[in-house]
Write a structure and sequence with these properties.
Two copies of one chain form a homodimer. By secondary structure, chain A is an alpha/beta fold. Chain A has 15 helices and 15 strands. Chain A has a seven-stranded mixed beta sheet, with helices on both faces. A four-stranded antiparallel beta sheet of chain A has the order 11-12-15-14. In chain A, a hairpin with an 8-residue loop joins strand 14 and strand 15. In chain A, helix 2 packs across helix 11 and helix 11 crosses helix 12. The interface between A and B is large, with 57 and 57 residues.
Chain lengths: ~375, ~375
């Protein structure tokens, strides 16, 4: 019955370590000055390890969607044939973005509780040699599905299409391996596994994607990566950047490097396994099968999910996220990404246990409803 | 010969009060949660006083240019006839943005050391009844010119064109009076007179502009104001916002309201007059006449401006900005906006005086060069 210590257990934005938060309060510096010019390219290039790439990583001041639109606006011209792999809210967002940019949009829909089927992708591509771009989501945070992005990439065979990946809620929580997996464009953002406040997106492009983007005819200016490329050569951004995210990123990377990236990934897997085992032990039903389960969040089926979330938030200060799209009101999502530990997962499970017991009658009723479903 | 206390005297980003900086370090909250939903619309609506409008103010996470592109992408369709009033770097940016969005771009060029001539605007409009949008800059921070935005607005007479205003380095430093002056779109950003770090843009639209924007055919998603409108009704943004800028804005507005907006504007005028009188007393030549002078920054003509700036920065920690565009290397700019006081201007002038005296010989040579010019 206390709530003075809020626990943000949503799949982003996530809690930020104090060491990182304090960077956000640093004095403003000149983004065209010597200090920034020295720091910025250095910090950005340390992100390459997380992307698993030797390509340049760019920063765009904006949300994750700004990063996604940076990809779309630099690649899609009116009439470009594209394939969007949709198994949740963020796959749908790719399709909406491509539609806004007047692409010829093909959509492969997958149920909102499982991963993209690479065989269906291969089949579709065999029938559609004209497809130039495939848009996929690495970790679909609306459902808690981790897509097998390597298998999706391989499903292309020798098809020409470039693979564009939303790794917003994946990068830093699970290996990306951009180069090894042949991903052509990878987009992420500050407020998920990278343990920073919202405010900036990050994007990397393969050499093929860099070349391809030169031909794009879409109207773009703020998102025009050619400008970012040009300015990064002198250690700057074309437009006033979120300077503090650069400070924060430096500290967040220091912390992740100190922990060791392998350990960071292992911690996320452990949190996934704990969240799933714990929820099951409480008699709760998981949205996603073990094979497709995300290491960064876990979705739990629950009738009256929103009332339950509100109760937990008000009584304990622990905040879960609701369901999105088809799952609205019938699912809650537990975030365990970024600055989160197995102990945080235990806390979340403890709260679930207490609340489920306390309101046993309500729960029993709920279980009957679930059974009926 | 000490530099441990940096003094950022550039026309943005500007120093941020500690009270505001500390807001940037606050714990992350859920941008779809109750606390944010209550705070966000309230804080945004307090900006109306600064805009001088009863229209809705929107926030877009991004730089000032993101705000400018929000205006362009919501208003300009391919082929829309527009007029850009260019007297500096940011007027040029409007023209570049409109070109990127495939408008039919007409440009009225003015010398980069004086204000837009409203008579020329009226004359042009009389010959071009087809113009639908006029893009202007309130305070041209590349030159230190404050344009007479009211006269530009009046110059339209009964011409149909909507007036779109870049008030990035003006809003909060000089009266905007959007409604009284009939400005249709006003764009600003966090890192100038609003005393916050960079990271967000703000935009307001007149009723006519709101209606007009419905017909735009430009590709847009992240900048699509119809989404922002829809989400603001429930106290949210369509995409994860820079949550901390909302905290910071709350505090910055509290400080400005406590000082009183009239006093804020008077302080900026005093800083302008001090900077100009001081520079003149030091024998320096100002770029802009008194009639056109900006209250938020002052540009000083100076041969070898960049070497001089570097010297001042290295010896005293005081940082001035360089010249932009045609003024590169031959002008330095003193920012006196936002969290700046007349005492800060005295400090800047003192540094100028010491350095000019100390390097008297260099200065004399410089003056001869200036005289020769």
């Amino acid at each position: 019955m206390y709530r003075f210590k809020p626990e943000l257990r949503i799949p982003g934005p996530v809690p930020v370590p104090s060491e990182v938060s304090l960077q956000m309060a640093r004095p403003v510096i000149n983004h065209r000055g010597a200090v920034f010019k020295e720091k910025f390219p250095d910090v950005l290039s340390r992100l390459k390890l997380l992307f698993g790439t030797e390509n340049t990583v760019y920063m765009v001041t904006g949300s994750g969607t700004a990063g996604m639109e940076t990809a779309v606006s630099n690649l899609v011209s009116p009439g470009t044939p594209v394939l969007c792999l949709v198994g949740g809210f963020f796959g749908k967002r790719w399709a909406e973005l491509c539609t806004a940019y007047k692409a010829v949009v093909h959509v492969l829909e997958f149920p909102w509780d499982r991963g993209v089927d690479p065989d269906q992708v291969a089949e579709f591509l065999a029938q559609h040699p004209e497809i130039e771009l495939i848009f996929a989501v690495h970790n679909e945070s609306s459902t808690g599905v981790l897509n097998d992005i390597e298998a999706i990439s391989r499903a292309r065979g020798d098809h020409q299409a470039l693979l564009v990946v939303d790794a917003v809620s994946a990068l830093g929580g699970t290996p990306c391996e951009m180069d090894a997996r042949g991903l052509d464009v990878v987009v992420s953002a500050s407020q998920k596994c990278l343990m920073m406040p919202p405010g900036a997106a990050f994007i990397a492009l393969s050499e093929r994607a860099q070349t391809y983007m030169e031909q794009s005819e879409a109207s773009r200016y703020y998102f025009d990566l050619r400008r970012y490329q040009q300015f990064l050569e002198k250690g700057e951004t074309p437009f006033t950047p979120n300077i503090h995210i650069v400070f924060a990123l430096e500290e967040a990377l220091r912390m992740m490097e100190a922990e060791g990236l392998e350990n960071v990934y292992a911690r996320h897997l452990l949190m996934r396994d704990m969240a799933r085992a714990g929820a099951r032990a409480l008699g709760l039903e998981l949205l996603v099968s073990d094979a497709d389960a995300s290491p960064t969040l876990t979705a739990v089926k629950f009738p009256q999910a929103d009332e339950f979330r509100q109760r937990v938030r008000e009584r304990y200060g622990v905040e879960f996220a609701g369901g999105q799209g088809v799952h609205a009101g019938r699912v809650f999502r537990i975030g365990h990404m970024g600055y989160a530990t197995p102990l945080d997962v235990l806390t979340a499970l403890a709260v679930l246990e207490i609340e489920l017991k306390k309101f046993g009658r309500a729960t029993e009723a709920a279980e009957r409803v679930m059974a009926a479903q």
